């Protein structure tokens, strides 16, 4: 309470046929958080993130990002949000550098600015030497890094990442973490999903725990950690 919020959903709801995937979720993320959305496979994390980022239409409820209603005002929210979807749909026949330039173009960023930002991001992601290689030849870690660079190109205030560390080699994972830490240190907000509780405990200052389409715990890492009944439940769950 009293936090300015980067994200707030109210009663977010989605069903696929008879199956309720997300059953009325009130997700809250304070501004500037490094937030983790954690829960086992099938908990509803991807479905929730997809509705928050405007990729999947909710059956009910609402989503605000930076105080803007995502489903009422999708155009206004677009400039503030960066997304790293689970199955990165990247143009594999482009080089890393071309991919960034293409993303800058569709975002309507001026060409010189795209070039400047792209070179900076390629360096930060340790991709400068691979910038002219085709994305199809990138490793999983490199793909996640180029996707993160593309998502950061327009300097969004809130970044959503679905399982960003899955299948990523340790060195690339460290780079991703460093970039995300610097990004939140500058006041921006990160929300990422994971089924690995240890990872979320190591990285996050804010945690939302999902199971069976519901938030079962939510708060600062200390609050969620201090919840012993929850910890017992998590041992069986995540
Ligand atoms: P994972 O890490 O495995 O992706 P998750 O927590 O992200 O898990 P979701 O992918 O959101 O969970 O899935 C929640 C539930 O909704 C699951 O039972 C899943 O089978 C179902 N579901 C998700 N997408 C669809 C879809 N397009 N059609 C039918 N059922 C779906």
From TrEMBL:
Subcellular location: Cell membrane
Domain ABC transporter: 7-237
Cross-referenced Pfam families: ABC_tran
Superkingdom of the source species: Bacteria
Topology of this chain in the membrane: Peripheral membrane protein
Keywords: Antibiotic resistance, ATP-binding, Nucleotide-binding, Transport
Predominant location: membrane
MF GO annotations: ATP binding
SUPFAM superfamilies: P-loop containing nucleoside triphosphate hydrolases
Name under which the protein is recorded: ABC transporter ATP-binding protein
PANTHER family: ABC TRANSPORTER ATP-BINDING PROTEIN, DOXORUBICIN RESISTANCE ATP-BINDING PROTEIN DRRA
Nucleotide-binding listed as a keyword: yes
């Amino acid at each position: 309470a009293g936090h300015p919020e980067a994200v707030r959903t109210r009663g977010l709801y989605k069903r696929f046929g008879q199956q309720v995937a997300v059953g009325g979720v009130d997700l809250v993320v304070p501004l500037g958080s490094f937030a983790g959305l954690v829960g086992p496979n099938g908990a509803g994390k991807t479905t929730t993130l997809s509705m928050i980022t405007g990729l999947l239409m909710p059956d009910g409820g609402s989503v605000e990002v930076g105080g803007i209603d995502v489903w009422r005002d999708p155009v206004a929210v677009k400039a503030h949000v960066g997304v790293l979807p689970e199955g990165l749909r990247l143009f594999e026949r482009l080089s890393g550098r071309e991919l960034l330039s293409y993303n800058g173009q569709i975002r309507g960023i001026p060409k010189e600015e795209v070039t400047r930002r792209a070179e900076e991001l390629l360096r930060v992601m340790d991709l400068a030497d691979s910038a002219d290689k085709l994305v199809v030849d990138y490793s999983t870690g490199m793909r996640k890094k180029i996707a993160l660079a593309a998502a950061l190109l327009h300097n969004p205030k809130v970044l959503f990442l679905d399982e960003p560390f899955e299948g990523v080699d340790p060195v690339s994972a460290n780079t991703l973490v460093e970039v995300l830490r610097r990004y939140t240190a500058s006041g921006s907000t990160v929300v990422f999903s994971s089924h690995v509780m240890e990872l979320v405990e190591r990285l996050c200052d804010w945690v939302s725990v999902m199971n069976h389409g519901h938030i079962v715990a939510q708060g600062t890492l200390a609050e969620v950690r201090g919840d012993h009944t929850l910890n017992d439940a998590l041992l069986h769950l995540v």
